[in-house]
Amino acid sequence: MKQNKVLFYTENGLFIDKIQKMEKFLLSRGLFDFSFNYFSDFQEFEKKCKDEKDREGFTVVLCENNKIDALLEDIKSDGDSFTLVKEQAVKLERNSGLKNMIFVPIELAFEDFLEEFLPKNEVFVCSLYWISRKKIKEKFDILKNGFDLEYKIISETRDLHKVYFSKFLEQERLEFEFGDCLYSDKDESLAKRCAILLKDNDLSISVAEHCLNGHLIGMFANENELKPLLTQSLLFLNTDQIKDFGVCDDLIDEQQAVNHKVLFDMAKNLLKSSKSDIVVTASFEEEYSENNDKRSYVTLGDKEKFYQYGFVRLGKDKQESLVEFCDYILYRLYIYLKQKTNLKN
């Protein structure tokens, strides 16, 4: 039976990011049938590598560079030979010609070595937001009904997902099942999708944030296509700076909180000062509440109209919630741009 596997060994703890990156790389090549095995004991890892030599299929082995020579020496048997791949990885060759096995230092970018080693099949992908993993599975099980469709869900956050699938599906079918949750028929970030809509419609944007530690501005500034469209970006560290920006003192309460009224006033002032087509202002509520009575807010709009949305923090992890809030802001911006540009066109 054909078995394709990725074997990991490291003395420095599990590289979660490396595994996630590897999984996305394999799926981008249309490879759905890989399993992942992690080892913290070198002897067990070595034994598994020996066993894999006698199985059909592809095996990718990742471990620290200083362990590879010893590993190869221990598993080598009569009829085996090793070939250097780009002078840093090693491919196993067997007389039978049945085995495809490569050893890659975990410290290196594995993509450089696997491009030629692994096959590439046709694959399709879509990007979804504001939907649960369970609901995506239900929808794709409906879509695959009646024909051979493989699919794999990669969840980047609680609400942000990429789905890789093996057969072409009409855009209309995906839109029917997922509606506005489907924001791209590619593996794209929300920032990238917003950038495309802004650029295609010749729209500029300005952003002001409070208590987001520059995270939202960074998502805009790091998107190459979005950077030229970003007219102004403001990072407010305290309410004194917000007052200096022209926000009415009466809107800031006794607790010095940046509430939805403050954000609305900030948006109006930002629109005047930046002369952008669109503005976004946002403030993150850092305090977690079990009662869900604490909200973060985002205001966005143009000279015609502003829209405001609240976001309830569901988890205690501040950084995780901050990332989720920024995704939420970008999704709201995407929906706004989609509606605005559809009306324009």
Characterization of the model:
The chain is of the alpha/beta class and 345 residues long. It is elongated, with a radius of gyration of 25 Å. The longest helix is centred in the C-terminal third of the chain and has 27 residues, at 318-344. The strands form 3 sheets. The protein has a 6-stranded mixed beta sheet with strand order 2-1-3-6-5-4, sandwiched between helices. The chain has a 5-stranded mixed beta sheet with strand order 12-11-13-14-15, with helices on both faces. The protein has a 4-stranded antiparallel beta sheet with strand order 8-9-7-10, with helices on both faces. The chain has 11 helices and 15 strands. The protein folds into 3 domains: 4-117, Rossmann fold, CATH 3.40.50; 124-184, Alpha-Beta Plaits; 190-344, Maf protein, CATH 3.90.950.20. β5 and β6 (99-105) form a beta hairpin. Helix content is 37%, strand content 26%.
Short précis:
The chain is α/β, with parallel strands linked by helices. The protein has eleven helices and 15 strands. The strands form three sheets. The chain has a six-stranded mixed β-sheet, sandwiched between helices. It has a five-stranded mixed β-sheet with strand order 12-11-13-14-15, sandwiched between helices. The protein has a four-stranded antiparallel β-sheet with strand order 8-9-7-10, sandwiched between helices.
Query: How much is the radius of gyration in Å?
Result: 25 Å
Strand fraction equals: 25-35%
Q: From the helix content, strand content and strand pairing, which structural class follows?
A: alpha/beta
**Quick one: CATH class of the largest domain?**
Alpha Beta
- The number of strands is 15
Average pLDDT figure: 89
Order of strands side by side in the largest beta sheet? 2-1-3-6-5-4
Named at the architecture level, the CATH assignment of the largest domain is Alpha-Beta Complex
Number of domains: 3
- Give the CA-based shape: elongated
Distance between the ends: 54 Å
Number of helices: 11
Largest sheet: 6 strands, mixed
Topology as a string of helices (H) and strands (E):
EHEHEHEEEHEHEEHEHEHEHHEEEH
How much helix is in the residues?
A: 25-40%
Name the assembly state: single chain
CATH topology of the largest domain: Maf protein
> Superfamily at the CATH H level of the largest domain?
CinA-like
Unreliable runs, pLDDT <50, ≥5 residues?
A: none
